[in-house]
Amino acid sequence: MTSKQKVYDALNFKNGTSVPRFMWYSNKTKEQLKKKFNLSGPKLDIYMGNDILQTWLSINGEMEREVEENTKFIDEWGITWKRSGSHNMVIAHPLKNADIDTIKNYHLPDPLEPKRYENLEYLIKNYGRDYFIGADISGTIFEPSYHLMNMEDLLINMAYKDDKIDLLFDRIAEFSTIVSLEAVKRGADWIWLGDDLGTQSGMIMSPAIWKRYLKPRMAEIISKIKKEKNDIFIAYHSCGSITEIIPDLIEIGINVLNPIQPKALNMDIYEIKRKYGSAITLMGNIDTQDLMKNSTPEEVAVETRKLVDSLSKNGGYIFAASHTIQPDVPLENILAMLNELNKI
């Protein structure tokens, strides 16, 4: 059975020979793995057992753009980033304090820029027969908006129902829609949408505000994607505690929820599986905040086995971490996790 078929079986709630996996490593972690195994790029992902090969097509790829420590750069959105540790952080917001006319006339990236799709095309051409190919269009609406405007200003304007927020969200949703449709046309197996909506203890905004601004726009994006290809799968990523809107995500057509962060309030994957496991595939939730960093390899292996045994019956589960595996995770714990998966 190919990796692609394993993923499709999970998504279609079928019993497969083994649970599919998709592990997401930071660039510095990949460097450690590269040195150990003398492999890089998709060949490293495949060696590590990933059944899904995925590539960035939108703004969140800028978090991992390879630049030197303390380097500043301006991305295609006009946003200024600075390298700090393992990731790049936004340090200047071009639409901070912008009025509605400025937002209306602000130059957004070209969603059809050919370079945007080069790696997707490469993955489909070279690996698409046997591996499941994902197109990552996250952040989809909210995250680009707060990078452009500044989080505090954006949330205040949302609370006051300022018309310029509707305009900003509409423009970014249009961009994400066009990129998603182009990825579908080029042969992606799923479209990966997402906006980080949760903190450790609850949502960044109230569910009512989310339903006012983001739910209808996300629903429209998904509707247009599925109109283009009705059997395409839609994955959705949000860190943090978002239990209050899981039924809404299912309602608007999300097929896969990631990462079900175990340390966040009420994000118990077993309870979520019990409530929603027949309606949505769960993708997660090996803990990177504590377990992977601080436990023994034996403890990591036990938790890996527990997740797979408890969640993969009748499909509907893809093994993944609760977020990117950072370089402070001991290599022996990564190998213990993967070795246990290989036994199952």
Notes on the protein architecture:
The protein has 15 helices and 10 strands. With 344 residues, the chain is an alpha/beta fold. The protein folds into 2 domains: 116 residues, no CATH class; 169 residues, TIM Barrel (Alpha-Beta Barrel). It is globular, with a radius of gyration of 19 Å. The model has no long low-confidence stretch (mean pLDDT 97).
Question: How would you summarize what this structure contains?
Answer:
The chain has 344 residues and is α/β, with parallel strands linked by helices. It has helices spanning 3-11, 27-37, 41-47, 100-105, 118-127, 142-149, 151-159, 163-186, 207-213, 215-228, 246-251, 269-276, 291-294, 297-311, 331-343, and strands spanning 52-56, 72-74, 80-84, 87-92, 132-136, 190-194, 233-237, 256-258, 281-286, 317-321. 44% of the residues lie in helices and 14% in strands.
Q: Characterize the main sheet.
A: 7 strands, parallel
Instruction: Show unreliable segments.
Output: none
The Cα radius of gyration reads 19 Å
Helix and strand sequence: HHHEEEEHHEHHHEHHEHEHEHHEH
Question: Going across the major beta sheet, what is the strand order?
Answer: 1-5-6-7-8-9-10
Count of alpha and pi helical runs: 15
Overall pLDDT level? 97
SSE-based structural type: alpha/beta
Query: What name does the CATH topology of the largest domain carry?
Result: TIM Barrel
The CATH architecture of the largest domain comes to Alpha-Beta Barrel
Our estimate of the beta-strand percent is 5-15%
In angstroms, what separates the terminal alpha carbons? 15 Å
What's the number of domains?
2
Tally of extended strands?
Answer: 10
- Global geometry: globular
- Tell me roughly what share of residues is in helical segments: 40-55%
| Main CATH class of the largest domain | Alpha Beta
